[in-house]
């Protein structure tokens, strides 16, 4: 108990430093033995930074690593050139990227919601913890790569429950082909429309047509779409079996067009497993010679792992408990494993209500800020945080929020007294960080 409170106090002191709105421009934060300047965008917390370098997807015997290897093996066996795998794998790329990499290179508009401080973990205005592995796409294309997988941890501010965690793992991929590769058996066809080839320097690509980009021929787009969907269906069948039901849903992503999401019918419901599409030609042009067409896809490892192994809580991915890890150690990567709970520990639920300061309203207060604070103080014993109630006083017009915080340890029973102490620390942190008044 004493050690827990020491960690909480220490964590909160750093938390205040990271979130201080009065931080001077010379302030810095140290990440992976490098110092980074901070500014009014800085919102990374010590708790989030503690997940860096864990590399669960590379940890032998970890369920994330088992599924990662199954995906890699599928692409290695499905695509070969001269007896060697066509796809190269990048699974240890630095998690700190520039806003140019994460947004600009991918044609994400400046006013897009995904750029908001409420959605991302910023080191400063120019740098952030990558929000998707696609952030490395352009740099690898510029390096001259045609077919590659990008695998690693990504960071997004989100709600707190059994299926959401601020850190998760993604597999992203790009496969590009030149005319002679794509139309190997269809000589005379072209990737690009004639009017694009005639004035490619001044041509502005359009995505007004839902079936294709204006620069691409319909034949090239449809052939790539067919390849993409067949390859991804093959992957899903390798993971979930040949009889898995699937469907394609039209989608929108700033960096692909057309775009689709794939859903599978799993355990009596449709579950989204990946997003994909034809890479916007502007991205390829900015990365190098414009003589190819490409498809790309991205999937979350945790979602697949939880479905395949029947793991009920995403926090278990970070467990160091031998009762969890030994269920996956020394297993064949294709083994049919069903997670067996070691034991079930009870929940402790405490509500926290507070009046907002005058400068904030129930519409402008960012719940993700509060979620980060709760996680930073409470750590991994926070199972869920839900906005329970909004209230406006009829006379004073003061505004209030009430959050329900569910505490549960994955490896032992929490006492109510222990939870109450942590809850008090969260109350203090909320008062100091947001200027609220506890009700």
From TrEMBL:
SMART domains: FDX-ACB. Residues 343-439 form the FDX-ACB domain. The keyword Nucleotide-binding applies. It is found in: Mitochondrion matrix. GO terms for biological process: phenylalanyl-tRNA aminoacylation. Residues 95-357 form the Aminoacyl-transfer RNA synthetases class-II family profile domain. Its EC number is 6.1.1.20. Pfam families: FDX-ACB (PF03147), tRNA-synt_2d (PF01409). Its main location: mitochondrion. Keywords: Aminoacyl-tRNA synthetase, ATP-binding, Ligase, Mitochondrion, Nucleotide-binding, Protein biosynthesis, Transit peptide. Belongs to the class-II aminoacyl-tRNA synthetase family. This is phenylalanine--tRNA ligase.
């Amino acid at each position: 108990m004493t050690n827990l409170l020491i960690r909480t106090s220490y964590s909160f002191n750093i938390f205040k430093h990271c979130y201080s709105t009065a931080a001077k421009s010379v302030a810095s934060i140290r990440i992976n033995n490098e110092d980074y300047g901070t500014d009014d965008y800085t919102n990374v917390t010590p708790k989030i930074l503690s997940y860096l370098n864990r590399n669960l997807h590379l940890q032998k015997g970890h369920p994330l690593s088992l599924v990662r290897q199954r995906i890699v093996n599928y692409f290695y066996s499905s695509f070969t050139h001269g007896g060697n795998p066509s796809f190269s794998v990048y699974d240890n790329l630095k998690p700190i990227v520039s806003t140019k990499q994460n947004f600009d290179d991918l044609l994400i508009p400046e006013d897009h919601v995904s750029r908001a401080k409420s959605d991302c973990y910023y080191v400063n205005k120019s740098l952030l913890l990558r929000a998707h592995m696609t952030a490395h796409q352009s740099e690898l294309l510029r390096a001259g790569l045609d077919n590659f997988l990008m695998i690693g941890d990504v960071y997004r501010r989100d709600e707190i429950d059994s299926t959401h965690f601020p850190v998760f793992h993604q597999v992203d991929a790009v496969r590009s082909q030149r005319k002679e590769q794509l139309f190997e058996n269809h000589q005379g066809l072209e990737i690009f429309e004639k009017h694009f080839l005639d004035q490619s320097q001044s041509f502005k690509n359009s995505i007004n047509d839902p079936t294709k980009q204006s620069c691409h021929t319909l034949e090239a787009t449809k052939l790539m779409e067919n390849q993409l969907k067949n390859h991804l269906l093959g992957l899903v069948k390798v993971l979930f079996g040949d009889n898995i039901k699937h469907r394609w849903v039209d989608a929108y992503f700033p960096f692909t067009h057309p775009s689709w999401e794939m859903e599978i019918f799993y355990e009596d419901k449709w579950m989204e497993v990946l997003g994909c599409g034809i890479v916007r030609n502007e991205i390829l042009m900015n990365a190098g010679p414009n003589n190819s067409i490409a498809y790309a896809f991205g999937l979350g490892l945790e979602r697949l792992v939880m479905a395949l192994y029947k793991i009920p809580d995403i926090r278990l991915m970070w467990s160091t408990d031998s009762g969890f890890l030994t269920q996956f150690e020394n297993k064949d990567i294709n083994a049919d494993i069903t997670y067996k709970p070691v034991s079930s520990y009870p929940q402790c639920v405490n509500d926290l209500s507070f009046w907002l300061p005058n400068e904030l309203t129930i519409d402008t207060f960012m719940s993700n800020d509060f979620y980060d604070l709760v996680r930073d103080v409470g750590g991994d014993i926070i199972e869920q945080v839900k906005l329970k109630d909004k209230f406006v006083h009829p006379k004073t017009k003061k505004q209030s929020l009430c959050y329900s915080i569910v505490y549960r340890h994955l490896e032992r029973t929490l006492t109510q007294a222990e939870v109450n102490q942590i809850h008090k620390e969260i109350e203090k942190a909320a008062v100091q960080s947001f200027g609220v008044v506890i009700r």
